[in-house]
Design goal:
The protein is built from 18 helices and 22 strands. The chain is of the alpha+beta class and 491 residues long. The chain folds into three domains: 2-222, HUPs (Rossmann fold, 3-Layer(aba) Sandwich), CATH 3.40.50.620; 250-331, Uridine Diphospho-n-acetylenolpyruvylglucosamine Reductase, domain 3 (2-Layer Sandwich); 344-487, Phenylalanyl-trna Synthetase, Chain B, domain 3 (Phenylalanyl-tRNA Synthetase, Chain B, domain 3). The strands form five sheets. It has a six-stranded mixed beta sheet with strand order 3-2-1-4-6-5, sandwiched between helices. It is globular, with a radius of gyration of 26 Å. 34% of the residues are buried.
């Protein structure tokens, strides 16, 4: 095991010739194995393979498991002291961070962890304990999120300041190593918490895929090797054109030359934007296809003189287009909160009519279904022939049909406010909109941008999620109202 990991380190040139590496340690089998192996390989002992490389332990208390979180931190301190290694312990209230920044718990924990590590690192490398099984889970997560070719590569042995010495071994191997060396890993109960999508992939999706293809792990890893060749070439092109496109790069702000960006093929444009946003978001870009399309619309927009157009993106990113430049900024929590508090005022939605929803990349529209189609739909409703109803009224995630008379003549649209409630279709009681978003696994980064449609008395549609039961179509419906949202770069 020791030789296998050392060979992997040398093969991918993960270590500097000299200096200090920060080792992220949670206390589980993987990170405990990582620290023990690196402690044998590094330092001044005669058998050390990298005598000029020193280690510094770092552990973050996420405050997710009460007193157990503090016990874990104490264990890490004691372990590091017993091995003669310096240690830094941090703590952050991850649930509070998730609420504050509109993130999922999983995303907030990851963001907090890397912010903490980079505070400790001060320009040095960070070793994390991701292994081959983590790679498989990451590939599936990327596929679920629609991250395209770059997502098929998964995690690299080295990404910016992050190194992954265990990427060539499995979790079973790290557990066996700990047992062999009498290391007692901590048990983190959050590893089975179904609130985390990765846990559902690990405990639900992967076993299902293995039942269909027992070799699914190897298949996914082979696909990664194939895709890596193509992505490496693309990234080399991004590196080549980066100096011509990027005018200024700061920790929370990157400025691009719009004209230079537009001279590149669309593929390179998107990969370059992916790198820009990843650098502003702790190494992981939040952009999906719809965000690239919005940015591309923004780039095509005619800008005159001192005019500026701003687009809000997930993960507290903001992109501003002026006459010559495209500026990406990572907003502070207070700045993002101020923007959204100023943009959540309800605006009228005429029928028929279209309005841009402030603070979001969406245009909301409403119109009465024309009488010939409405008549056919009413007849199907009276027969309770729902197959025919949806044939006449083709609904999608972004288009729904409701009873116009029950909704009333006054419609407004806005983004979510704390305490918003509605009665989901088929229910007799109201639920918090926040709870509905969690139950539907809507990413925390997307929740501040979802439009809500209101009648004079209550929410009638949480766009992309659910309509309110009180405005559903029934056998007595006379007028049918179509509500929809569509992307727009005009904010």
């Amino acid at each position: 095991m020791l030789e296998k990991i050392a060979t992997y380190i040398d093969q991918h040139r993960l270590f500097p010739e000299s200096g200090t590496i920060i080792v992220a340690v949670s206390g589980g089998a993987d990170s405990l194995c990582l620290l023990h192996v690196l402690n044998r390989l590094c330092g001044s002992r005669p058998e050390a393979r990298y005598p000029a490389v020193l280690l510094h332990v770092a552990h973050l208390n996420h405050k997710l498991r009460g007193e157990a979180s503090y016990q874990d931190a104490a264990f890490i301190v004691q372990l590091a002291d017993s091995w003669g290694l310096p240690v830094t312990i941090g703590e952050i209230d991850v649930p509070a961070l998730a609420r504050q920044e509109g993130r999922s718990l999983e995303d907030a924990a990851r963001t907090a962890r890397y912010r903490f590590l980079r505070d400790v690192v001060q320009g040095r490398l960070i070793a994390v304990a991701h292994h081959a099984d983590d790679q498989v889970e990451t590939l599936l997560l990327h596929w679920l999120r629609g991250e395209g070719l770059a997502g098929m590569v998964g995690m690299l042995p080295r990404q910016q300041d992050i190194i992954r010495p265990l990427l060539g071994v499995t979790h079973a191997e790290t557990v066996a190593y700990c047992s062999q060396h009498a290391l007692l890993p901590l048990e983190d109960t959050s590893n089975r918490d179904p609130r985390f999508l990765r846990n559902r992939v690990r405990h639900e999706l992967l076993p299902l895929l293995e039942s269909m293809n027992p070799g699914i792990h190897a298949t996914l890893l082979r696909n990664t090797e194939v895709a890596h060749v193509d992505v490496a070439w693309i990234e080399a092109q991004v590196e080549r054109y980066w100096p011509a496109v990027v005018l200024a790069e700061q920790e929370e702000r990157i400025t691009l030359d719009s004209a230079a960006l537009l001279t590149l093929p669309l593929s390179l444009q998107r990969h370059l934007l992916r790198r820009v946003t990843a650098r502003l978001c702790a190494g992981q870009s939040p952009l999906e296809l719809r965000h690239y399309l919005l940015i591309e619309e923004l780039l095509r927009r005619e800008i005159a003189g001192t005019e500026e157009v701003t687009l809000q993106l997930p993960a507290q990113l903001q992109v501003t287009r002026n006459f010559t430049n495209l500026v990406f900024e990572r907003l502070s929590s207070k700045e993002a909160e101020h923007i959204f508090s100023a943009l959540d005022e309800a605006i009228p939605l005429p029928v028929p009519g279209r309005v841009a929803v402030p603070g979001t990349p969406w245009i909301a529209s409403a119109e009465i279904v024309t009488e010939p189609v409405a008549r056919l739909a009413r007849q199907a409703l009276q027969r309770q022939d729902w197959l025919s109803v949806w044939q006449f009224l083709p609904k999608t995630r972004y288009t729904v049909y409701i009873d116009a008379d029950r909704a009333g003549s006054v419609l407004t649209v806005r983004t979510r406010r704390p305490g918003d409630r509605m009665r989901p279709l088929g229910m007799t009681r109201e639920k918090k909109v926040q709870d509905m978003l969690v139950n539907e696994h809507i990413p925390g980064a997307d929740r501040p941008y979802i439009p809500l449609f209101f009648s004079a008395s209550h929410c009638v549609w949480l766009a992309g999620v659910q309509i309110d039961d009180r405005v559903r179509l029934t056998a007595t419906t006379q007028r049918i109202l179509r509500l929809s949202i569509e992307p727009s770069s005009v904010i």
